[in-house]
Specification:
binds cobalt (II) ion, alpha+beta, Creatine Amidinohydrolase, about 260 residues, binds 2-amino-4-trifluoromethylsulfanyl-butyric acid, 4-stranded antiparallel β-sheet, 4 helices
């Protein structure tokens, strides 16, 4: 069942989303060579707890941390570690989820660590653009697959590829609700979009081939070919007007244009 949220519920989801956006803004200011992903994780947890919220990932199917931090060929679900030191030229995806008063927000961004290769910069830009093209499709009357179709069209035009094994999702009083939101496919398929639906739209895009595998830690998904990968995510409400980006950040921190 796909739940449609009332205006009052969307207000509460906006509070959760705003907090997640603030956490990402804080972490984006910390990204620099020499910092560890455990440093980022600690800062995120502190901020979420201080806001009276709960880290959504910690303990989820045994996941051990507040954020996912995925470097270079890591696609998603990288586990923060005091031994993972960011290096100049890396790209790092940070994924944050929190629940506040029973409602969830979920958002991710991929950032360059200092100057990065032209390929890396283009990958980040195109993946973030794909997210916004997908969000544009989150309107009543459209269908779920319109979202993934928009992502796939955009990224493949640049010679990049869409990850198939992981998808976006409905979100609300649980982090993962129906429907699934793939990042590929034909338009005009799947459930109809309706006012009040809230979706976590999250393109995962590889510079090389689409195939991924999960490492022995049971979490970290990496590209099979070792190419770079990027991930951007927003929690988005379908409304009668413009799509509402609940995890919008006051200071845009996405891929440098
Ligand atoms: N944003 C990711 C998702 O939608 C985060 C899940 S990480 C997990 O699935 F650890 F909680 F699984
Ligand atoms: Co998500």
């Amino acid at each position: 069942m796909i739940v449609c949220r009332s205006a009052a519920e969307l207000e509460r989801m906006r509070e959760a989303g705003r907090l997640v956006g603030e956490v990402l803004t804080e972490l984006s200011a910390m990204i620099a060579p020499g910092i560890t992903t455990a440093d980022l994780d600690r800062a995120a947890e502190k901020r979420i707890v201080a806001a009276g919220a709960v880290p959504a990932f910690k303990g989820y199917h045994g996941y051990p941390a507040t954020i996912c931090s995925s470097i270079n060929e890591e696609v998603i679900h990288g586990i923060p570690s005091g031994r993972r030191i960011l290096q100049e030229g890396d790209v790092v995806s940070i994924d944050v989820g929190a629940s506040l008063d029973g409602y969830y927000g979920d958002s991710a961004m991929t950032l360059p660590v200092g100057p990065v290769s032209e390929e890396a910069a283009t990958l980040l830009r195109v993946t973030e653009e794909a997210l916004y093209k997908a969000i544009e499709r989150a309107r009543p009357g459209g269908r779920i697959s319109d979202i993934g179709h928009a992502v796939q069209q955009h990224v493949e035009a640049f010679g990049f590829s869409v990850v198939r094994e992981f998808v976006g999702h409905g979100i609300g009083q649980r982090m993962h609700e129906e429907p699934q939101v793939p990042n590929y496919g034909e338009a005009g398929r799947g459930p109809r979009l309706a006012e009040g639906m809230v979706l976590a739209i999250e393109p995962m895009v590889n510079a090389g081939k689409p195939a991924v595998k999960v490492l022995a830690d049971g979490w970290t998904a990496v590209t099979r070919d070792g190419c770079l990968s990027a991930h951007f995510e927003h929690t988005v409400a379908v409304t009668s007007g413009e799509p509402w980006i609940l995890t919008a950040r006051a200071v845009p921190v996405g891929a440098k244009k």
